Amino acid sequence: MRKIYEDFLQLLKSSLQSQNTTALSSPNWIEIFRLASIHKVEPLIYESAYKTESFKEQDQNLIKHSKTTSMQIVYSQIQRSDRFLQLYKEFNKAGLEILVFKGIILRELYPIPDERRSGDEDLLIKKTDLKKAEEILQARGLERVLSQEPEEDVYHYFCHKTGLHLELHTILFGGKSGVYKKMEQIFSTVFEDSDAININNIDVHTFSIDKHFLYIICHAIKHFVSCGTGIRQICDISIYINKYHENINWEYIWKEITILDYDTLLVNLLQIAIDYLGLKGNKIVYLKDKNEYYINTEDLIEDIMEGGIYGSSTQARLNSANMSLDALNKESKSKIKSNIAAIFPKAENLKGRYKYLEKYPILLPVAWGSRIFTYSKERGSLFNMGVTAKETIEVGNIRIDLLKEYKLIK
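The line above is the sequence of Nucleotidyltransferase family protein; the predicted structure tokens follow.
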């Protein structure tokens, strides 16, 4: 493994465990904070970095910038968290049954919660409660943003004062693929077996321990098969196990994960947490001999570290998702067809960006043209857009090989 990854993961581990950082040998602090930025873990890395002698000896501009950036992120997160809890308190008063997942639930597991930043807060709501919830949000100054189409699966609300972004989900997994249908079935009972935790004297309803653990695993792998997952999602899995390992029904978890064909990848994600994030292996219960699994984390770490949060570090990685999904759905018999899918995606993969495809899929060629025009404008010329297309295909082929390596494509 590259030294920069070892240094970065050592700092992250120290922060997760509230320990002093082991002395690092000539760390590249600029590169470390670049990785922290693309993985959205700047405060966690700074928390460990400022305790090291090596960091204290760095250029004062770097020290000041990293400190200021981290403090701003934490302060902003505190504001958003407080605003969210105020709104959720109103939901409780109105008798609405709304389940919170990820976000603030996971932040509470970290030594300093608001150092684990969240881009948004996710809520699962019954469609029968949606109208009342929207009335509450709008009455308190939040604005519905992004799509205004009726019958959406996700409703986005934004607080301009604090930057809080709420996502109200009526289903957990969009899309019509077989694996997403399986996931929806697995989580169909979350309201019946929900739990509640108290945060700042407010009862916040969430999934049961097993369902939430299963969800954050599925969510991480859903992103992995698309563009990639980031180290923060593995931190979430690791810290969740540290908190709840005695209460997790491991037999249930492995049963569902195996049905989804995610077991090989999960074993490798857990191995990364054990080797580099301080997770104790004896807190995990395997249903068969661990040595029976294929375990090789080197390729996986490289993909995770360079991909950044949700694999979004480069446009080429984002574009390559069409190749990965095409190969995963077994619609392509060769990489050539997957390469074509990266440049000319199916309507289903473009509906999020071009809403008119929802009603008029026949306009797919128009979306292709618009997409090509946008990329060529951003890149400066059609030639440069061609370079991006080449990069997309290269990344996509590497990622398809990864899906095969961890048995997501058989």
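Note on the example: The CA atoms of residues 72 and 272 lie 30 Å apart. The radius of gyration is 22 Å.
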